Amino acid sequence: VDEQRERYRHRNEQLSKEEQLRLRLQNDIDRLRAGLFSDLLFGKPAGESAFDLAALNERYHYAFCPGCFMVLVVKVDGGQQMHTSGAFAVLQEKLAGILRAGLQPVCLELEVCFRASRAWGVLNFTPENAPQVRRQLKAVLGELLVQKNIFPEQFTIGLGSVVQTPAGLPQSALDADRAANQRLLEGTGKLL
């Protein structure tokens, strides 16, 4: 019986170590993928080929494919208490889940990253799926507005320009930011 307990304990320790390694690897991948947003939003990495498809896939651990690319931003407008409480972490998790659930079926690759009160997304999709991507973005906004009884914040989705190569992602990010800022003139709760 003692030998069985010892084997059981040893097996659990081994599984725990493997799980810790898996979690560390996933955390490293998440950090690499988030690095793309830092480069897009806070300055391009050095070099002419920095936004080359193969370079992005290798450097940031993506699986981008030839097709269309677009940056989007979901601007969350709410009170200051939202940012200081733990509620914002719950909101981020819920928002990322809604974006992924709505967009993954029509995208080849997708990533969401949070910076302050904005959720930034990079979408990669086929030209044939462009209309479905737009429909799904409208559905995502609708879902966010339905969640208003849980989260009283206001949501606006700013879309960047659709570009044919990853080299256009920095411009798409600027366009998405400008579109989200239009909420000040056009109002929140819209796809801009």
Can you describe this structure?
- There is one protein chain.
- A four-stranded antiparallel beta sheet has the order 2-3-1-4, sandwiched between helices.
- With 192 residues, it is α+β, with helices and mostly antiparallel strands.
- The chain has helices at residues 2-42, 53-60, 80-84, 87-103, 130-146, 169-181, 183-186; strands at 68-77, 109-115, 118-125, 154-159.
- Helix 4 (87-103) runs antiparallel to helix 5 (130-146).
- Helix content is 55%, strand content 16%.
Structural class: alpha+beta
The whole-angstrom Rg is 20 Å
CA-to-CA gap between the ends? 66 Å
Return the string of H and E elements: HHEHHEEHEHH
Low-confidence stretches: none
Shape field: globular
As a percent range, the share of helical residues equals: 40-55%
Count of distinct strands:
4
Question: Proportion of β residues?
Answer: 15-25%
Largest sheet: 4 strands, antiparallel
Figure out the total of helices.
7
Mean pLDDT: 82
Question: What's the helix and strand layout?
Answer:
Blueprint: H1 2-42, H2 53-60, E1 68-77, H3 80-84, H4 87-103, E2 109-115, E3 118-125, H5 130-146, E4 154-159, H6 169-181, H7 183-186
Antiparallel strand pairs: 1-3, 1-4, 2-3
Helix pairs in contact: 4-5
Quick overview:
With 192 residues, the chain is of the alpha+beta class. The protein is built from 7 helices and 4 strands, in the order ααβααββαβαα.
Main features:
globular; 4 strands; single chain; alpha+beta; 16% strand; 7 helices
